[in-house]
Write a structure and sequence with these properties.
Length: 433
């Protein structure tokens, strides 16, 4: 039996007591909810001891390991860029002196406030394209035919920004329709192999760029992918805004009527997936999935579940908690959940795993008004649904829902997942130009 404090020499008690106190405090602080960063901030202001403990690398590492998955601190939305009208339940879009939006439309669902680059956004208007591993990928939202548009990777925790130029392949010898809506997409992800992605937002990253190109004189669109070299947000030196891009991978024909849905790609087992919709006048619309394997640099097409018609924000892709590819489809007030499974013949097939009636599950005032799917959290069973009363997160396994916004008019919702770091909040970082 270990000795009690009363049985130890006085000198040993004086040394042991602070260690025991810190261990007890750590056990208490580890249980503070990660999706309420204000709790950690208030605790750090209580005393110098608590501040040193909460901002130390030991506690931050244990806190991330204890909670495993990073929480959702806010989200970015894809409302039509350039609209500065304030929506009910949303803060007004901040503008620069020139009248340009000063920040992409980031909405906090907690006490967290995103940090802007130290030198702002310059004269560029950006829209959110993707968010993963603590980084946000932005696309310049200028006129569609004004030459080479830029990309930017932004860290909302530190304010660090890195600008990249889109790959030249997009501006090759193709018809001008290549610049149109629905013919490009991109993803950002950590470039470190075997990373747990709990605190890698300042490390090397890659950008994967998708495009549907149509060669002059051709009929069908061809999907291609280029990948940037690993980039870092090194705030000690200016960044080059000309990224090195790989040669495009072998293309895959997607027909003459396919277009990419305006939602971020989803990452499952080193492969990115995008929704591809087909709509031709007089024909029944249908959906396919573009899959890009990062390890083999190979593109392929996957048919969506039978009956999975993708129109008017009624279908989304999901990276399920069990690691499978998911497909959520709405039909009026009924949600159909599909996922892939590998059979005995090693062939992946779709299975309808659940049918959920939303009428008595989510707050709905007017059942005749359309319900839309806006997005999902990667690696979980959580989706985002908008009704006439606002936006709700819904866990399709536990059926627990939570209202996160009063907004209704969103094209898609991109969750920002990260652990809050009080020390990083005060640091400056801008790798703009």
């Amino acid at each position: 039996m270990p000795p009690t404090l009363s049985a130890l020499p006085e000198e040993a008690v004086e040394e042991t007591a602070p260690v025991l106190l810190e261990e007890i405090l750590e056990q208490i602080f580890l249980r503070l909810p990660p999706d309420e960063p204000a709790c950690l901030v208030r605790a750090s202001l209580a005393s110098k001891l608590w501040l040193a403990l909460l901002t130390g690398p030991r506690f931050r590492s244990r806190y991330r390991e204890h909670h495993a998955a990073p929480p959702m601190l806010g989200f970015l939305n894809s409302t039509p860029w350039g609209s500065t009208e304030q929506q009910e339940g949303h803060p007004a879009v901040t503008e620069t002196e020139e009248g340009h939006p000063a920040v992409p439309p980031f909405v906090s669902t907690t006490g967290f406030r995103a940090r802007l680059p130290d030198h702002g956004w310059g004269h560029r208007d950006y829209n959110a394209w993707d968010c993963r591993h603590g980084r946000v990928l932005l696309g310049q939202n200028n006129g569609l035919l004004e030459g080479a548009r830029r990309l930017a990777v932004w860290d909302p925790m530190t304010g660090c920004r890195r600008e990249l130029q889109k790959p030249e392949v997009v501006y090759g010898e193709v018809d001008e329709v290549v610049y149109s809506y629905g013919l490009y997409a991109a993803a950002v992800l950590c470039a470190v192999s075997s990373c747990d992605h709990l605190a890698c937002h300042e490390g090397p990253f890659r950008v994967v760029h998708f495009s549907l190109t149509k060669v002059v004189g051709g009929d069908d669109f061809v999907a291609q992918v280029c990948m940037s070299s690993p980039e870092t947000c090194d705030c000690s030196k200016p960044s080059s805004d000309l990224a090195e891009w790989s040669d495009p991978c072998p293309g895959v024909s997607v027909g003459r009527d396919g277009y990419i849905e305006p939602r971020p790609p989803i990452l499952i087992n080193e492969a990115l997936h995008l929704m591809l919709s087909h709509f031709c006048h007089g024909a029944v619309p249908y959906a396919q999935i573009i899959k890009y394997d990062l390890s083999s640099d190979c593109l392929s097409l996957i048919d969506a579940p039978k009956g999975g018609v993708n129109m008017d924000n009624v279908s989304i892709l999901m990276a399920m908690e069990d690691g499978s590819l998911g497909f959520a489809h709405l039909k009026r007030l009924t949600l159909f959940m599909w996922s892939t499974h590998v059979g005995s013949d090693d062939v992946a097939a779709w299975t309808c795993r659940r049918v959920i009636k939303l009428k008595n599950l989510l707050p709905i005032k007017n059942p005749s008004k359309d319900i839309r799917l806006l997005g999902a959290v990667e690696g979980s069973d959580v989706i985002f649904v908008t009704t006439d009363l606002g936006i709700y997160s819904l866990n399709v396994k536990s059926l627990q829902d939570k209202k996160i916004s009063n907004e209704e008019c969103l094209v898609s919702l991109i969750p920002y997942m990260s652990f809050y770091n009080t020390r990083e909040k005060g640091e400056t970082c801008d790798a703009a130009h």
